[in-house]
Amino acid sequence: MSRPQPRPWTDHLPDGARGGFTLPEPGTLVGAWTARLAADSDRPLFHHDGRWVDRGAFLEATEEVAGRLHRAGLAVGDRVLVSGEASVDLVVAHVACLRLGLVVVPVNGAYQDPELAHMVGDARPRAALVDHHGWAEALRAMDRHLLVASTSVDLKGGPTPRLDEAGPDAPALVAYTSGTTGQPKGAIHTQASLLAGAHSVVVAWRWTDHDRLLLCLPLFHMHGLGLGLHGTLLVGGSAVLQAGFAPEAVLDALVDQQCSMFFGVPTMYHRLADHPRVGEMGGLRLCVAGSAPLAADLHRRLATEAGVDVLERYGTTETLMLVSNPHDGERRPGSVGIPLPGVEVCLDGVTGEVLARGPNVFSGYWGRPDDHPEALEGGWFHTGDLAEVSDDGYLSIVGRAKELIITGGLNVYPREVEDVLVAHPAVAEAVVAGVPSTEWGEDVVAWVVTVDGADCPTVEDLRAFAAGALASYKLPRRVVDVEALPRNALGKVVRHQLRETADHG
Ligand code: AMP
User: Fold this and answer.
1) Cα angle vertex 112, ends 107, 115, to 5°?
2) Is the pLDDT score of 501 beyond 50?
3) Among 102, 137, 166, where does a domain finish?
4) Ligand 1: does its nearest atom lie under 6 Å from the Cβ of 288?
5) Is residue 481 situated within a structural domain?
6) pLDDT (tens digit, 9 = 90+) per residue, 140-199?
7) 290 Cβ closer than 6 Å to some ligand 1 atom
8) Within a domain: residue 96?
9) Whose CA is nearest to atom 10 of ligand 1?
10) Which domain covers residue 433, as residue numbers?
11) Which of 143, 166, 189 is the last residue of a domain?
């Protein structure tokens, strides 16, 4: 690889972001939050299930829950799995853990036992705060020492322990992401990297305490958690929490609760654009899209039909946000914009892999000291995404060096699905790849070579077979029966040749 050459992108940064990027005092996420929320305690903070919770009540609830966790024996540095639908309880539990110095491991509620077991084995949590049916028993069976409670943390109360003492370098979050191998790895974010990640978008998007965010993104992923939730707490704005995405409920709440901002994945924008009431989004100050490419056509459609100039941004679990279209200035369809304040981004070629470094970059993978970004040349994190830059500095993602599929904004790693499919008795070989889909961004498609004499399983068969091992969004939407897989001279499957056959399946 040639030595990365950062481009002089700082000229494009918004006013106030030039010439240095200073994190709010005291340089930790929890410190910055509590400093902000301690004032004006009766200002509304979170809305859920028809009621508002104000700053004072929220902080008090986090202290109460931290007291219970402390009494239960949890100590600084212990990992806690957290998984539930978006609710005030879930947010209180998350913040209480962080204030106590615990390390939150957010988990997707769609995970099946084998996926959960991998996380338990890898992160070695001391406790789990989970709401999903059957999870408590499953988790106890995986680790009989694990303390399991719901996200309302229904444990005995205790005196408020010392809070907000974590330093900037203390681990705060382990966010699982699969990398290219199909084995999920836990990206460690510290108090400081989470703060930097939230602060850079606060600056760039001119997010203030007058903003109200409609937050219906899942809170196990960085888009909803690291941006939506952490940003709201950092500016002391407010957020309407919705568990899951329902266009009707989103449009109702935008108006009824006078929201000013909406964050969504492209699939959500696609559904909203098809809704007869899409024009009601026109009153929003800011709509942000990310986690997968927003089709340029959809961007234009939302502009003409709803008067919404969606701001697309780009980032990864490991780095939080890296690049964003400008708040003031052209938001270019098909481009993810310019580097965010405090972030250095470069490409390792004209069309090259995106490399990034900055205070927002994670500090390594949990339990894998050799797989560390600092070990890379100059501390640059290799995102695995391929991009190009226009003459005026706008970055466009043109592909992925890695084989990750993104469907409905959720990541699917082909290897993980392939490993399950090949266990089917009629399947000799299976390869999984994403093919473009207007609705989902990409569809998970499986190409299957059957064992001699067997009929190719139908998509329903394969989905039913894999449903116990994989979250439903990872299951193939199509199956293509092939005689043999196209391979290159090195024996690697040539995925782009497979994709060309997707429509004939
Ligand atoms: P995650 O770690 O789940 O946040 O997924 C990160 C991946 O999502 C990136 O490496 C990109 O491949 C993809 N991604 C995120 N935002 C965008 C975007 N605006 N355009 C294209 N790809 C994106």
Assistant:
1) 65
2) yes
3) 166
4) no
5) yes
6) 999 999 999 999 999 999 999 999 999 999 999 999 986 545 578 999 999 999 999 999
7) yes
8) yes
9) 316
10) 404-501
11) 166
- The token pair that represents 430 in the structure block: 């299976």
Residue 493 lies in a domain: yes
Radius of gyration for the chain, computed over Cα atoms and rounded to the nearest angstrom:
23
pLDDT in tens, 342-394: 898 988 777 788 989 899 999 999 998 877 655 455 678 888 888 889 988 89
Q: How many residues does the chain have?
A: 505
Quote the ligand 1 centre to 266 CA distance (angstroms): 11
pTM for this model (two decimals): 0.87
Number of domains in the chain: 2
Q: Quickly list H helices, 73-221.
A: 88-100, 113-123, 135-142, 191-204
- The domain that holds 114 is classified in CATH as 3.40.50.980
Ligand 1 atom with the smallest distance to the CA of 383 is: 10
Ligand 1 centre distance from Cα of residue 292 (Å) = 5
Q: Quote the ligand 1 centre to 220 CA distance (angstroms).
A: 15
Cα(315) to centroid(ligand 1), Å: 6
- Dist. CA 177 → ligand 1 center (Å): 12
Token code pair at residue 196:
């930097």
Domain-located, residue 265: no
Determine the atom of ligand 1 nearest the C-alpha atom of 222: 4
Sign of dihedral through CA atoms 392, 394, 396, 401? Answer: positive
d(CA 414, CA 16): 42
Using most ligand atoms within 8 A of CB, pick from 174, 316, 395 the residue to mutate for ligand 1: 316
What CATH number does the domain containing 456 carry?
3.30.300.30
- How far is Cα 429 from Cα 407, in angstroms, rounded to an integer? 23
CB of 383 closer than 6 angstroms to any ligand 1 atom: yes
Asked if residue 397 has its Cβ within 6 Å of ligand 1, the reply is yes
What residue's CA is closest to ligand 1, atom 8?
Answer: 291
